[in-house]
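[PROTEIN RECORD]
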Amino acid sequence: MPLPALSGLADAGFQLEGGRGGRLDVEAATGPGAVFDRFFAAYDEAFVLPDEKEGRDGFLECLALNGAGAIAAPYAEWVLVASRDGDVVGGANFFCHALEGRDGAALAMNLNYVFVAPAHRGRGHLRDMVAAARRLARMTFAGADALPLYLFIELNDPLLMDAEAYALDSEVAGIDQFDRVAVWARLGARLLDFDYVQPPLSASQSADAGLMLGVVDPPHPALDACVLGTHLERFFAVSVLKGGDPHADPDTAAQLRACATRCMAGEAIRLLDPMPRLDALRPLAGRGGRGPGLRARLAAPGAGTETLPGNPA
């Protein structure tokens, strides 16, 4: 089955039947303008950790790549805001693309940033932001409603954060780091048993090895390493390196080589459910990376690899 073509959508607006808070008006754009300005103003208050935070110019540089052929696949980068009676409830930024999996065409997206405004927290709106982003990703491609969708997220590893960063981010986000992992797990997120490093977002920032990569409601119980490698290569090229070569950057090249090796071996990436052990591991939080992180601790029992059907090796 050929990859779906882009639908040609450059901006969008629709209503979403929100959760406990009621209906939301969603506006989205692939370039600068009023929607981006509303998104960035709310986003700028929601994210505080310096190496995780994209600047205004960085966002605009990513959006400028739309239609520029930065990667050899149909793709788009979006920002969206959801509001009620003109008041911003939350927003999101994501990159989405079409790829070829072992079972045929699929969609993948990286939910780079998602947030709920402080006045609207505690009403289930994170689920609404995810639903809005999913809907928009499918709208981006023609005839793609029935295709599998891989929705990737980054989460702070609470066991790799120092006490100051742990407290600051928890205060601004209005949620404890372990509770955030639990919320995403209840939304269907599973953590990838993969050594993930986010490359520097700009020349003035550092790589971030304190993040975990997750996938929400994965189509399969394990993740094809070929799918992960394709996704990371494109996500790094567009949303992180702003059109740069991910094979030329040491932080990204090592991860792509690991994916390629496992892809050729027909291996799957284990997907870890964090819920059963979260409470037992909470007392280890805020130690600044002394000892294994949450993902490593979850992976330790029964660690191993799985082989997918159709091993190309």
